Amino acid sequence: MLKIIKGTLLFCFIVIITPVLSQNTEYKEVHELSYRQDGDDYSKQQCLLDISYPVAVEDAPVVVWFHGGGLTGGHREVPEVLTKKGVVVVGVGYRLSPRVEVVDCIDDAAAAVAWVIKNISKYNGDPNKVFVSGHSAGGYLVSMIGFDRSWLQKYGVQADQLAGLIPFSGHTITHFTEREKRGIPGTQAIVDSLAPLYHVRKDAPPTLLITGDRELEMLGRYEENAYFYRMLKVVGHPEVDIMEMQGYDHGMTYPAFPILLKFIKNGL
């Protein structure tokens, strides 16, 4: 069901749903864990992750978070608003264009998620409760590795093991950084193997698409997500929803984080 959340009502919504999981527990942080043992110095610099995890909670749900930045900028982050909510939070860094190709960014995302599934139990996380989320370029990476099974299969993990996909304002068409490299203008939509839309399938993990207001978002971002949602419904995906954060532009992460936490709670 398509849902529009008005900015004027959102504050009350946040107050109601923020405390959805166990809180007020001691947390520890670990930094700069490498999820790749191969590669050059740039890979060693970028392919790192940070983890914030509850000390006394075992088998906690996990949020893997990919930062935005157009696949050309940004840095790994553990969103503070997600910490101390009873979930393990993993912030992922990845290589960036133009140093690498867009396919390398996607491959890093898959390698990172595979590492989490194989290792997160050491940090009190449940590998069967891994939710993957990210903003903008990060949201694009979430959808690519969640819908195109081949990326995670390379690392011995099945995309369908994921407990849920929650891309924040991510491309569902071929990413604009890839299109720009090919000399294609931002107004020309392309759907090929580097587009989540190309990989629509009904048996993908539960999915929640969240965007900003269609009138305030980046070019066509709401509409391409709405089309992605519609095609998933057409093929029979049983657990997909879309939310439009009315009154918020592309930088809509803060009001969307509580919705992410509620999605996790509902999926447990």
Plain-language structure description:
The protein is an alpha/beta fold and 268 residues long. The protein has a single domain (2-16, 27-267), classed as Alpha/Beta hydrolase fold, catalytic domain (Rossmann fold, 3-Layer(aba) Sandwich). It is built from 8 helices and 9 strands. A 9-stranded mixed beta sheet has the order 1-9-8-7-6-4-5-3-2, sandwiched between helices. Helix 1 crosses helix 8 (253-267). The radius of gyration is 17 Å and the shape is globular. The two termini are 20 Å apart.
Which helices and strands appear, and what pairs or packs with what?
Blueprint: E1 2-6, H1 7-17, E2 27-34, H2 41-46, E3 48-54, E4 60-66, E5 88-92, H3 102-119, E6 125-135, H4 137-147, H5 150-153, E7 164-168, H6 176-181, E8 207-212, H7 221-235, E9 240-246, H8 253-267
Parallel strand pairs: 1-9, 4-5, 4-6, 6-7, 7-8, 8-9
Antiparallel strand pairs: 2-3, 3-5
Kindly summarize this structure in a few lines.
Helix content is 32%, strand content 23%. By secondary structure, it is an alpha/beta fold. Helix 3 packs across helix 4.
